[in-house]
Write a structure and sequence with these properties.
A: Helix Hairpins; 3 helices; B: mainly alpha; elongated
C-alpha cells in the first residue's frame, strides 16, 4: 500500500487506542471516537478521489451524517451521567442505576 | 283601513318619545300611558270591525330598507285575520293591566320607568304580531325577550330575580337558535323572508325549517324541555306576570307556529311532533301545579299547561282554534293574575297559599273574579273558556290522531280543575291563616275597574268573538254524545275529586312527603338536574379532552416517556453486570492486538 494510506490507518489505530485506554474522564473516549470518524472520512475521500470512483462520491457525506448522529448520542449519555454525578468520572459507573 | 291601523300603532309610540321631556318626570305619567293605550284600543276596534264585516285582509309595505343581493327587506305590516283580531284583544288586556299596575306599583319610586318598559314591551309585541317578513318578526321576537328580561329583574336587588331573568334569557336564546336556523333555511332555499313568497312556492321537504320553528316555540312558549323559566319568571312584579307571562309573550311561540300553518298542514311528521310535545307539556306542568305552594307559581304552571293545549291544537291541524284559545285565554289568565296580585298586596306581600284562607268575606269582589276566572279556565260551559277549550277537546276526540296524546290531554284537563279547586279552597275558604293585623281593603277604583273590565270580558268575550269572526275551519258538528260530554265529565271529575281530598285532609297532620309528592313539588326534578349536570359534564369533558387527553397523554406520555420507562425497566431486569468500563475497553484492545499479531500468518 502507498504511504498515505498507511499514515491515515496509523492515525485510526492511535484513536482506537485512545478510545479503549483512558484514565478517568468519559469525555476523552468520545473525543477519540471523533478522531476515528475523522480518519475514516479522510481515508475514504482520498481513496475515492484518487481512483476516480465517481459513483461512490456521496459515501463520505453519508458517513459524516451518521458520525454526527452518534456524536450526539454519546454526548447525551455524557450529559445524563453528568446530571446524576456532577462529573463524568468513569469510577461512578459502578452501580447500574440512572 | 290602513291609515287607522297605523295611527293606532303610532299613538303607542308617543309616550316613549316624550320620555326625555318634562312629561316623564311628572307624577301623572302613568295616567297618560293608560289613556294612550285606551285610545289606541278604541281606534283599533274600527279596523277590526271593518275586517269582520268585509273579510278583507291588507298588507302595508312602507319603506324599502335594503336589498342584500337577492333579498329585499322592507318594513311591512300584515293585517290578516290573526293580527287584526289579536291587536284589540291585546290592547284591551294591556289597558286593564296598566290600570291595575297604577294601584299595585303605587309606592314604587321608579313607576314611570316601569310604565315605559311595559309600553316598550307592548310595542315590540305589536311588531311581532303584525310582521310580514321573518326579519321584522325576529326584531319583535328579540324585543319581547329583552323587555321580559328587564321586567322580570325589576327588583334587581333580589338575587332570585336576577337568576330568574337570566334563566328566561338563556332558555329563550336556545329557542332563538331554532328560529335562526329556520330563517337561514328560508334564505338559502327560497331567497325571501316574506310570508307571501314562502307560502306560495312549493318546497319538497320542509322538515328542517319546521323543526327550527318548533324549537323556537318551545323556547319562547315554555314547552317541555325548555320550560323552567316560566315559573321562575314569577319573581317579577304581578303586572309583569299578568302581561307577559299569561297573555302576550308566551303566546308568541304559539303565534309563530300559527303563522306558518300553510307549511305545517302538509307535513305529517311535524304535526305528530307538535302534538306529542304539547301533550307532554300539558300533563307535566299540570302535575307540577298540583303541589306548589306559591299562588303565582300555580297560575304560571296553569299558563304553561294551557300553552301545551294550544300546541296540541296546532298539532291536530287546527290553527284557528289555537288562535281563538289564545284570545280567550288572555282574558281570564290576566284576570287570575290580577286577583292574585290584589290578594298578595292586601295580605302584605304574602304569596304562600298555606298562609291564606278565609278571604271569602273580606274581599268579595276579588273572590268573585277568582272563582269566575278559575271556572273559565277549566272550561265551564258558556263562560269564555268553553268556546275555545271545549271545541279543542271535541276536535281532538273526533280526529284521526295519536290516542296517547289525546288521553294525556284529557287527564291534564281534569288536573286543571283539580289545581283550580286547590287554589280556591286554600285561598278563599276555611278559617284565616294569615297575620291578624292586615288591613284588607279593595276600595281603590283603579283595581276595581280593571278587574271588572276583565271580568266582563271573561264572561262574554268567548261568545262575542266566536260569533263575530269570519268563518274558518268548520268544527266537527256530529259526534256521539259521550264524546261531546268528555271534557265536561272529566272536568267535573277533577273538581269533585280535588274537593273531597281537600276537605278530607284539612285537619290531618302533615306527614312526610311521599316520593310522588316530591316529584311534583320540585318540578319533576327537571331544573335541579338540568341546570347543574350538563354544564358540569361538558366543562369537565372539555377540560379532560383538551388538556389531559391531548397534551398530557398524547404529546407527553405515549412516545417519549413510555419509551424511556420501558427501556429502564428492561435494562434493570435484563442486565446483571457491574460498571467496570475501563476493564472492558482494555480487554477489547488486548484481544484485538493479540488477534492481529497471532493471525498474521498470511504474510
Amino acid at each position: 500500500m502507498s504511504m498515505v494510506y498507511i499514515n491515515i490507518f496509523l492515525a485510526f489505530i492511535m484513536s482506537l487506542m485512545g478510545l479503549l485506554m483512558y484514565r478517568s474522564h468519559l469525555m476523552s473516549s468520545l473525543l477519540c471516537l471523533e478522531g476515528m470518524m475523522l480518519s475514516l472520512f479522510i481515508m475514504m475521500t482520498v481513496a475515492i478521489l484518487n481512483n476516480h470512483l465517481t459513483l461512490a462520491s456521496m459515501a463520505p457525506i453519508i458517513l459524516l451524517v451518521f458520525a454526527a448522529c452518534e456524536a450526539a448520542l454519546g454526548l447525551s449519555l455524557l450529559v445524563m451521567v453528568s446530571n446524576t454525578y456532577g462529573t463524568d468520572y468513569v469510577q461512578n459507573l459502578n452501580l447500574l442505576q440512572c | 283601513f290602513t291609515p287607522l291601523m297605523l295611527t293606532a300603532m303610532f299613538i303607542l309610540l308617543l309616550p316613549i318619545i316624550m320620555s326625555n321631556t318634562q312629561l316623564y318626570k311628572n307624577s301623572l305619567y302613568p295616567h297618560y300611558v293608560k289613556t294612550t293605550i285606551s285610545y289606541a284600543f278604541i281606534i283599533s276596534m274600527i279596523p277590526t270591525m271593518m275586517f269582520i264585516s268585509s273579510g278583507q285582509e291588507a298588507v302595508i309595505s312602507n319603506w324599502h330598507w335594503l336589498s342584500i343581493q337577492t333579498l329585499k327587506l322592507s318594513l311591512s305590516f300584515k293585517m290578516d285575520y290573526f293580527s287584526t283580531i289579536f291587536i284589540p284583544v291585546a290592547l284591551f288586556v294591556t289597558w286593564s293591566i296598566m290600570e291595575f299596575s297604577m294601584w299595585y306599583m303605587h309606592s314604587d319610586p321608579y313607576i314611570n320607568r316601569f310604565f315605559k318598559y311595559l309600553l316598550m314591551f307592548l310595542i315590540t309585541m305589536m311588531i311581532l304580531v303584525t310582521a310580514n317578513n321573518l326579519f321584522q318578526l325576529f326584531i319583535g321576537w328579540e324585543g319581547v325577550g329583552i323587555m321580559s328580561f328587564l321586567l322580570i329583574g325589576w327588583w334587581y336587588g333580589r338575587a332570585d330575580a336576577n337568576t330568574a331573568a337570566l334563566q328566561a334569557i338563556l332558555y329563550n336564546r336556545i329557542g332563538d337558535v331554532g328560529f335562526i336556523m329556520a330563517m337561514a333555511w328560508f334564505l338559502t332555499n327560497s331567497n325571501a323572508w316574506d310570508f307571501q313568497q314562502i307560502f306560495i312556492t312549493q318546497h319538497e321537504n320542509l322538515n328542517i325549517p319546521l323543526l327550527g320553528l318548533l324549537l323556537a316555540a318551545t323556547g319562547k312558549s315554555a314547552q317541555f324541555g325548555l320550560h323552567p323559566w316560566l315559573p321562575s319568571a314569577m319573581e317579577g312584579p304581578t303586572p309583569v306576570s299578568a302581561l307577559l307571562h299569561s297573555s302576550t309573550m308566551v303566546v308568541a311561540g304559539v303565534f309563530l307556529l300559527i303563522r306558518f300553518y300553510p307549511l305545517m298542514e302538509q307535513n305529517k311528521t311535524m304535526q305528530t311532533l307538535t302534538l306529542c310535545l304539547g301533550a307532554i307539556t300539558t300533563l307535566f306542568t299540570a302535575i307540577c301545579a298540583l303541589t306548589q305552594n306559591d299562588i303565582k307559581k300555580i297560575v304560571a304552571f296553569s299558563t304553561s299547561s294551557q300553552l301545551g293545549l294550544m300546541i296540541v291544537t296546532i298539532g291536530i291541524n287546527q290553527p284557528y282554534l289555537a288562535f281563538l284559545h289564545i284570545c280567550t285565554h288572555a282574558f281570564f289568565k290576566a284576570m287570575l293574575f290580577m286577583c292574585s296580585g290584589s290578594i298578595i298586596h292586601s295580605l302584605n306581600d304574602e304569596q304562600d297559599i298555606r298562609k291564606m284562607g278565609g278571604l271569602y268575606k273580606p274581599m268579595p269582589f276579588t273572590t268573585t273574579s277568582l272563582i269566575i276566572g278559575s271556572l273559565a279556565l277549566t272550561g265551564m260551559p258558556f263562560l269564555t273558556g268553553f268556546y275555545s277549550k271545549d271545541l279543542i277537546i271535541e276536535t281532538a276526540n273526533t280526529s284521526y290522531t295519536n290516542a296517547w296524546a289525546l288521553l294525556i290531554t284529557l287527564i291534564a284537563t281534569s288536573l286543571t280543575a283539580a289545581y283550580s279547586t286547590r287554589i280556591m279552597f286554600f285561598v278563599l275558604l276555611g278559617q284565616p291563616r294569615f297575620n291578624t293585623l292586615n288591613l284588607i281593603n279593595e276600595n281603590n277604583t283603579h283595581l276595581i275597574n280593571s278587574i271588572k273590565r276583565l271580568l266582563i270580558g271573561s264572561i262574554f268575550a268567548g261568545y262575542l268573538i266566536s260569533y263575530n269572526i269570519p268563518p274558518t275551519t268548520i268544527p266537527q258538528m256530529t259526534m256521539p254524545y259521550y264524546l261531546k260530554l268528555t271534557a265536561l265529565a272529566v272536568t267535573i271529575a277533577g273538581f269533585i275529586l280535588a274537593l273531597e281530598l281537600n276537605l278530607a285532609a284539612k285537619n290531618l297532620k302533615f306527614m312526610y312527603p311521599s316520593s310522588l309528592f316530591k316529584f311534583s313539588n320540585l318540578l319533576g326534578y327537571f331544573p335541579i338536574v338540568m341546570h347543574r349536570l350538563p354544564s358540569k359534564m361538558s366543562l369537565t369533558m372539555s377540560q379532560k379532552s383538551a388538556s389531559m387527553l391531548l397534551d398530557m397523554i398524547w404529546l407527553e406520555n405515549v412516545l417519549p416517556k413510555s419509551i424511556s420507562l420501558f427501556q429502564m425497566k428492561m435494562s434493570t431486569t435484563v442486565s446483571n453486570q457491574k460498571g467496570l468500563v475501563k476493564l472492558y475497553f482494555l480487554s477489547f484492545m488486548i484481544t484485538l492486538a493479540l488477534s492481529l499479531i497471532l493471525l498474521n500468518s498470511h504474510e
